[in-house]
Amino acid sequence: MARPTHFEIPVDDPDRAEKFYSAIFGWTFSRWDGAPSYYGMATTGESNPGINGALFQRSPGSETSLTMETDSIEDSLAKITEAGGTVLVDKTPIPTLGYFATCKDTEGNTFGLFTSDTSAG
User: Fold this and answer.
1) Among residues 62, 74, 63, which one has the least CA distance to residue 100?
2) b/e string for 24-37 if b means 16 or more Cβ within 10 A?
3) What beta strand segments (E) does 45-119 contain?
4) CA pair distance 88, 71, nearest whole angstrom
5) 110 forms bridges with which residues in the sheet?
6) C-alpha dihedral over 88, 111, 69, 34, to 10 degrees?
7) Structure confidence by residue, pLDDT tens digits, 103-116
8) Tens of pLDDT along 69-90?
9) Which of 5, 31, 40, 74 is 20 to 30 Å from the Cα of 55, by its Cα?
10) Where are the domains of the chain?
């Protein structure tokens, strides 16, 4: 069964947002080199429950989203379209991490798919 493994929250002011989430939840952040509008949040670690997440620069139409880990993005995309969902961004590499895709469910909610593959890129 796939489970959420990542979330993304759009923000207008990354410094203000980092300060807010750090104060409330104790989250720590790392900026991603080469992705100036994507502000990565530290992982929860292997021994702690929870999912990893990030802040990113808000743009028109951006929204909070969840990403589900899957063994096969291709199989998941086929199931999504068969069930009435829509593929917004087809399978795309994330260098040295894996692949992602972005979809909409039948209710208009955006969500992501991710599969780990360190040879991606």
Assistant:
1) 74
2) eeeeebeeeeeeee
3) 52-57, 65-69, 86-94, 98-104, 110-116
4) 19
5) 104
6) 70
7) 999 989 999 999 98
8) 999 999 999 999 999 999 999 9
9) 74
10) 1-60, 70-121
